[in-house]
Design brief:
Blueprint (H helix, E strand, L loop, with lengths): L3 H21 L4 H11 L18 H21 L3 H6 L1 H25 L4 H12 L3 H10 L6 H29 L4 H25 L1 H7 L5 H21 L4 H12 L5 H25 L10 H25 L4 H10 L5 H12 L6 H21 L1 H12 L13
Helix pairs in contact: 1-2, 2-13, 2-17, 3-7, 3-12, 3-13, 5-6, 5-8, 5-14, 6-8, 6-16, 8-9, 8-15, 8-16, 9-12, 11-12, 14-15, 14-17, 16-17
């Protein structure tokens, strides 16, 4: 414990340097932080007093990363109106179903083609299907796209994915780990997840007058303590009932977005979002051992190409069904292509069940590539759309569709 603070301080200095470099060249900090984490960590050499393995401070850095996910999703929730989401309920259900069906089906096909067993195919399909809420949230905020028309649908798809994830993990963990009650667990999980989300939607419509009075606190010190207490309690409680803690943070943000204090909360949360968000991506990089990735290169590259194609097609279909323009619809698939924390969780489940050891390096490399490509594709979505428009001639339809700059 003697060097714990020094290790954490060293990590923060590295994160700061990477962030400054990314800012200088006007590029997303996400790839920089992930690669930085990979270059150091448990596999890095130790040179005297400067210990870049971060073994002693690993749990602290990982905890900072978890906080980053909470603040990213909480902030994203603050940016939206539950009223708009409720009105878009049908579009979200249809869009989420389309997204899951296309990507999960492609994952199943890819798994069988590459010669995995049935259970390994189910795990691989899960790795391929679930996008990264944290990365998607960070990119939307960084690119100032939270007000775009398609962002409501993107947010809805993220929440829909959580329902799917609850069912999927229940079923697959039952099959992989030998739980005979997997069907009952799956049914209970989906009921709990849906009921929990519905409860927050109701709270967001009914409780703002009460919350407005409770949060009428002059002291910023007391105000931020109350907000953070609610955030961490709801996130922790969500996890105890098998709803992702990040989704709990998102739902709480949606509730607070309906209060008159939403701007004040947002202003106070931004610095924590940026700091802990950066630590999440650095922590994620620390979990990847670059020396274990060689054998999974071709398998991961094939999955990456399949994912980009599947996400784009799903985004176009979901967006057009929701009445969005081709440009906005293309942004959906290019934004939610990033993979991250959930893919790693799914792969670890397969490893715990004694399945192919190649699943872990595959998932790590697959996630790394899409964590880098995802923000790039989102940033360059306008150019990508313009090039595709030359082929598909969508421009004439844009005049009668919802669009954005």
């Amino acid at each position: 414990m003697d060097h714990l603070v020094f290790e954490v301080g060293t990590a923060l200095v590295l994160v700061a340097i990477a962030s400054v470099i990314a800012n200088k060249i006007k590029f997303s900090i996400i790839p920089f932080l992930i690669i930085l984490g990979m270059l150091v960590g448990p596999h890095a050499p130790q040179a005297g007093i400067i210990d870049l393995t971060f073994i002693e401070s690993g749990e602290v850095i990982e905890f900072f990363g978890r906080m980053g996910v909470l603040f990213l999703l909480f902030y994203l929730g603050l940016e939206f109106s539950v009223g708009k989401l409720v009105k878009s309920g049908r579009s979200i259900a249809v869009g989420g179903t389309i997204y899951i069906l296309i990507n999960f089906s492609l994952g199943l096909i890819y798994g069988f083609i590459t010669g995995f067993s049935f259970l390994e195919v189910l795990v691989l399909a899960g790795v391929i299907t679930i996008s990264s809420s944290a990365i998607v949230a960070k990119v939307l905020v960084d690119l100032k796209r939270t007000a775009n028309p398609e962002t409501e649908l993107i947010l809805g798809i993220i929440m829909f994915e959580d329902i799917f994830l609850a069912v999927y993990l229940s079923v697959v963990s039952g099959l992989v780990l030998g739980d005979a009650t997997s069907f009952g667990s799956a049914l209970l999980s989906i009921v709990i997840a849906l009921g929990y989300m519905l409860l927050f939607f109701i709270a967001a419509r009914k409780l703002p007058p009460i919350l407005n009075k409770l949060l009428d606190i002059r002291s910023n010190e007391v105000f931020v303590i109350v907000i953070f207490a609610a955030l961490f309690f709801i996130a922790g409680f969500s996890e105890t009932i098998h709803v992702a803690e990040a989704i709990g943070a998102l739902l709480l943000g949606l509730v607070f977005s309906e209060t008159v204090h939403s701007d004040r909360i947002e202003h106070l949360v931004v610095p924590f979002r940026d700091f802990f968000g950066a630590m999440f991506f650095f922590s994620f990089g620390l979990s990847i051992d670059p020396f274990s990735l060689g054998d999974a290169v071709w398998l991961a590259l094939g999955a990456v190409l399949l994912t980009i194609a599947g996400n784009f097609i799903a985004g176009m279909i979901a967006g057009r069904r929701a009445g969005l323009s081709h440009k906005a619809s293309s942004n959906i698939g290019l934004t939610i292509v990033s993979r991250g924390e959930f893919s790693i969780i799914v792969a670890n489940l397969g490893i715990a069940g004694g399945l192919s050891a190649s699943l872990k390096p595959f998932a790590a490399l697959y996630v790394l590539i899409l964590a880098i490509l995802g923000p790039l594709l989102t940033k360059e979505s306008k150019r990508i759309y313009l090039q595709l428009n030359k082929v598909f001639k969508w421009k004439t339809i844009l005049k009668n569709s919802r669009d954005h700059k």
